[in-house]
Specification:
Helices cover about 70% and strands about 5% of the residues. With about 400 residues, it is mainly alpha-helical.
Length: about 400
């Protein structure tokens, strides 16, 4: 019988607050990375997600993701407008926590996810077109994936594992980012204009808030203040720190300089890769995932650059490849003694096969649907601002504001 546990409830609500700060943290992180004439634009794209996704989630998004399952594909509208979402726990998702607490946690994650994509098409998308993309992507990509993997859908029924969002959040956002790069095209630079971060301290503040938020994001998926949550928290912090060292030293050897932007990007790669595994693997496995993600995501960003794909802030290389890698490594490193599931190293090769299938379906759906959504938006309202507007800067052109007063 379900009953409210005050400790679990407080834990989930605090973690939801941690995750809520991640979207402003992302705004700071991305805002520091872009050119100073586009800072307001990309920060606005993150913040507006908090409003748009909240509306979608209340009206029908949460119900379609976590409502009673319909043939493994989608939830029904039993929870639309938060009907039947109140103080009584839902035994399927969180039997000791009010259902409304589970709702608010899932809302904070849902709002963050599409904002991740904006780093790929920074500096070149009209605000109204972004709002359309954000809305359609949340409904047609995020909601189905959340149901398939977390809400009782067919991938969860198969046994695919994704503790904190390696597939639902990061791989989906990363491969949506790749689709956006191919549909939208490259940015425009004035002669002699360099692609340099506008504010490295702002990047550091943003990354700090993201890391802080991640320490609530991953543990909360246990939905109990218990040992699995503690293991997820430790794995998360360890992965971020070790991946930072891998990225930093790799870059140091390659360029002769230990850059701060690279080191902070390494933290992000480790956090992304450990997310799907955080509550399923022992500490030593989290360290292995961190080491692998530091190198592989570093290589992916340079592969992307060599191909000339204008993924402005390397969303595909960090989130797409990091989420994919971590999701696959769950199939290697999961141990029943930690989170109740065994992977390849514990004698269950079938789990790795399931992870491969889940990753393939998730990234294929995210990439394909994102491509279609972007094409449709482009037919209705142009998906790229004019070259003149890009040269002048989107902050003034779209929002009538500037991030820095240079007078």
């Amino acid at each position: 019988m379900s009953h409210i546990n005050p400790g679990d409830t407080a834990f989930v609500l605090i973690c939801a607050a941690f995750v809520a700060i991640m979207t402003p943290g992302l705004a700071f992180f991305y805002g520091g990375l872009v050119r100073r004439k586009n800072v307001i634009t990309i920060m606005m794209q993150s913040f507006v997600s908090l409003g748009v996704v909240t509306l979608i989630w209340i009206v029908f998004g949460f119900s379609l993701a976590f409502g009673p399952d319909v043939h493994g594909i989608i939830g029904n509208l039993h929870l639309a407008f938060l009907n039947n979402v109140g103080q009584v726990p839902n035994p399927q998702y969180a039997p000791t926590v009010p259902f409304i607490a589970f709702f608010i946690f899932q809302l904070t994650v849902a709002a963050l996810t599409p904002a991740l994509i904006t780093g790929a098409f920074a500096d070149r998308v009209p605000f109204k077109s972004y709002i359309a993309f954000l809305s359609l992507w949340s409904i047609l990509v995020y909601v189905p994936l959340a149901h398939w993997i977390w809400g009782g859908g067919f991938l969860q029924q198969w046994g695919v594992l994704d503790f904190g969002g390696g597939m639902v959040v990061h791989a989906s956002a990363g491969f949506a980012a790749l689709a956006s790069v191919w549909v939208i095209g490259k940015r425009v630079f004035a002669p002699g204009e360099e692609e340099r971060p506008s504010n490295i301290p702002l990047i550091a503040i943003g990354l700090g808030l993201l890391w802080f938020g991640w320490l609530g994001d991953n543990p909360a998926n246990a939905m109990h203040a218990n040992g699995i949550a503690a293991q997820a928290c430790a794995n998360t912090f360890i992965a971020g720190g070790l991946a930072m060292l891998v990225w930093m030293f790799t870059d140091w050897v390659r360029t002769g300089k230990a850059g701060m932007v690279g080191a902070l990007t390494g933290v992000l790669a480790g956090l992304v890769a450990v997310t799907p595994a955080a509550g399923y693997v022992p500490t030593w496995a989290a360290a292995c995932i961190a080491l692998a993600s530091g190198w592989i995501c570093y290589i992916a960003t340079h592969f992307r650059a060599a191909r000339g794909w204008d993924d402005s802030l390397d969303v595909w290389g960090v989130h797409g490849i990091g989420g994919l890698l971590g999701s696959l490594l769950v199939g290697w490193f999961a141990y029943a003694s930690v989170g109740g599931h065994n992977g390849m190293l514990a004698g269950n090769g079938h789990q790795f096969v399931l992870q491969c299938a889940g990753v393939g379906i998730a990234v294929g759906w995210a990439f394909g649907m994102s491509f279609v959504i972007l094409k449709v938006v482009d037919m209705v309202a142009s998906i790229q601002v004019s070259h003149q507007a890009q040269l002048a800067g989107l902050d003034q052109e779209l929002h009538g504001e500037t991030a820095y007063d240079l007078a």
